[in-house]
Every structure is written in structure tokens, then in C-alpha cells.
Predict the structure.
Amino acid sequence: MIKIAIIGAGGYVFPLRLIGDVLSFPELRDCTISLMDIYLDRAERTASAARELIDHHRFSTQVEATDDRRAALDGADFVIITFYIGDDETRRLDKEIPLKYGIDQTVGDTIGPGGVFSFMRAAPVYESIVEDIGELCPDAQVINYANPMAMNCWFMSELGVTPVGLCHSVQNTSHMLAEQLDVPYDEIQFLVAGINHQAWFLELRRGSEDLYPRLKQVMGDRFGQAHRLGSVAQDSGDHSLQQGATTYEGAQERVRTSIMEAFGYFHTESSHHASEYMPYFRKNPELVKKYIPVRWPRPHSERDVEGRTRELLAQFKERLQASSEYGSYIMHSMVTGQPRVIYGNVPNHGLIPNLPDRCTVEVPCLVDANGVQPTAPGPLPPQCAAVNRTNVNVQELAVQAALTGNREHIYHAIALDPLTSALLTLEQIRRMVDEMIEAEREWLPDLA
């Protein structure tokens, strides 16, 4: 019987979605799923929904809930990390302090001030998890879903555990592009490579047809520089795939279309997120409104999220079918030997030679009984690699801050953030970082 540990299992919807994915494969049902969260009541909430689903389908799957991470990790074959380190207050501080200085982040969890501080809060927890894995389940396949993906995975790799980082941006963007082009999804082929949230569709084809000329025409007509955006449909904020459909933007794609017009290739993260990774789209409120006229909704209320959980549970009771999330496919392939290709975030050991060595890159990976095996797509177009390096610079210095405890590297990382450096002086950046450190000190590691 295999053991799957989910660390940070107290979320409302995503852990249950992963459990449903696991149960959709008969070969994975004979397992123990250990749900760990520092808040036991939240882990129990997820466990209760999972047991209800298991009982409905009369499976033999065992589910346990715990607030003891070592107990969850002990003997695990797969370790899935889904946590966020912080609370509603740290989320507010990550966004509102930079906003005082003119840095308007949409989400603030990937790079920028919010992304760096989100990582710095998580680093001590990752360090202790790596120690526990080495002792309790050294052969486990570690799957990281937590942002900031690239920093978290890079840090773990430097500490001696190599995870595969998983995101849904490749799957969801490819579906969105197929819809924009009115091409059945099962008829398109693509090759993607780069870094998480900023990987590039290097190829987009339908058989022998190169779809890029059509893509540039269609997206240019709808969202390009010559287009004046009219009414924009509300984005639901739910960017998961359900039965082949996606709500992954599509209504406000002005940012990514502009990036494609400038650099030649479409990339994987939504325009909403992408606007904060580059210096061109958020320089002032008027520009923000022009490119992102509708912001993602605020977090759902407890009642709303409970309703979404019940809705998802009802769907799984009616029909168990794996979502687009790669986690269950990795586990199934490793257990059964069935080969698959997924997109994963892994260390760059020559995979993309014009990105820095050891940084985290997102590339196609073969998965079978031998585990996750990254492929080497080769060099990116030089302009795409150059854009990626502006974000890798931030990631590298944040990782160095966590590895060394050197406070100066936090200043360095945020000073090199593309949006921050476009708007603030070095003195302003230092004041902003100092304010964030003071406000979040209880969550941060010791800094020299």
C-alpha cells in the first residue's frame, strides 16, 4: 500500500481536488492519504470530505488527518506540498506596504516584494521539511504546488531534495489558445519551455500547420495594441480546468498579447499575473486600468468556499475523472510504469543553456516507473531568455538570502525586480523592505 502525504491539506478546495484525482485511478486507490495541516480542524475538514467520497464509492482508501508533519511524512512514497506560510495579515502586508510606495501588485506571490517575502516566510519551513524527508522518507517523490514556485523549488534543490514543481498554467493556457483559435484541443501540439509563470510556447501546431501566424492575427485583432478594449467579462478567479473547459482569462489578454507582439512568443501565465512580472503594464493607475480593467475577485467567504467544496464533492460522487493537475498522473505513472509527458519545474542542469545553471526551469518531463525525467528543449530564443533572466535574478538573490541569512540579499532581490526597479529609487526600495521586515518579523527567519 502506497502512502501519500499532503502537507498543507487544510485548504478548502485544492486538496480535495487532488484526492479526487488520486481516486480516479483504480491503481492508486489502495493507499493511505495522510492529510497534514498545522490547524488540525482544517485537516479534519478535508479528511471528512474525502471519507465521504471514499464511502460513497466503497473504496478501501485510508485517510488520516494530523497536525504532526513527521507522522505524515513517515514512510511516505509521495509528498505533496500545498501550503501558504502566513495568514490574511501577511497577505495584506505583502500588497499594501508596496502599494504605499507605488508598487501595485495583482497577487504578489511569485516575484516582486510580495513574492520575495512569501518565499522568505516559507524558507524555514522548507528547510525543516527537507530534514524530515531525509530522515523519514528519503526515496519519496516530492511534488511542490506552492508559490513562489521557482524560489521554493530552487531552495529545496540547494538543500538536497529535488522536487518537481507543478503548475496548471501550461495546461490552462494551451486550452485557452485552442479556444481562441477555434481548434479542437486534441488536435493541437505544442512545446513549452522557460520558467514557471513565464514559460514560452515555442511551438504551436495543428499537424503540419504552424498555428502561430493565425494566433498572432487573432489575438492581435482582439487584444493587440491597435485594439481598444470594450466591455470585459468578469474573470471568475477559478483557473482550474473542468472537463476540458477553462476560465483561464481569455477575456482580458491585452498583456500577454502585447508581450507576444514585442517578443514573438506567447507565454504561460495569465495577463493578470504577467502584468506584475514586467515593467511595462503597471506604472500608474491609468495604465493598470488600460491593461487589466477587471481585477481578480477578493478571496471567497467561508460560506462561498464551503459551497464550492460541496459542489466539487457532488461532482466526484457522480463521476470520478482526473483534472488537468499533473500530480495524480505522476503518481500513476510511477506506480504502474505507464509513460507520460508532463510539464514540471526542475533544476536547470543544461536543460536550457541560456538560462542560469541550477535555476528552476519549466520543461517537458517524461514520467514512468523511473520517476520524473526532465527533457532538454535547448536554448530559448534570446529575447525570451533575456526576459526570463530578469525574473531569475530576483529568484537567485532571494534564495541566497534564505541560504545565508544575509538581509542585504533581500534588498538586492527586490531592487532587481523589474516592476519595482522601474518605479522606485534604491533609497525608496530600502525603506519599503525595512518596513516589510519589521511588519512581518515574527514570520521571518533570523537575518544578519
